[in-house]
Specification:
Blueprint (H helix, E strand, L loop, with lengths): L9 E5 L9 E5 L7 E12 L2 E7 L11 H4 L2 E2 L4 E7 L8
Antiparallel strand pairs: 1-6, 2-3, 2-6, 3-4, 4-5
């Protein structure tokens, strides 16, 4: 999620509310269940059995980026809303 987040940055995320375009959300990686992804919400689509959203990378052209272009839309019920981020210093210093 560079440039929004850098390696070592911290965040607080809670399971609450419906996704809104532009929000940061955390959710299990649909392609690798052992990790979580942090992505920006693109489009949101309400469905009969819940809401799904498009997970968009801030730097879509970076090598190795994965987002909804690879794994499709994400169920909102499995995601957490990012409420707060903490930027670390240049060498991991707070």
């Amino acid at each position: 999620m560079r440039p929004t987040l850098q390696p070592g940055d911290g965040l607080l995320a809670v399971r609450c509310g419906a996704p809104k375009t532009g929000q940061l959300r955390v959710f299990p990686d649909p392609l690798k269940s052992s990790r979580y992804l942090i992505k920006r919400v693109g489009n949101v689509r309400p469905l009969q059995d819940g809401t799904i959203f498009e997970a968009v990378s801030d730097n879509a052209g970076a090598p190795g980026v994965t987002d909804s272009r690879q794994f499709g839309w994400v169920p909102a019920a499995r995601s957490y809303r990012v409420l707060w981020t903490v930027r670390t210093g240049p060498r991991g210093e707070g």
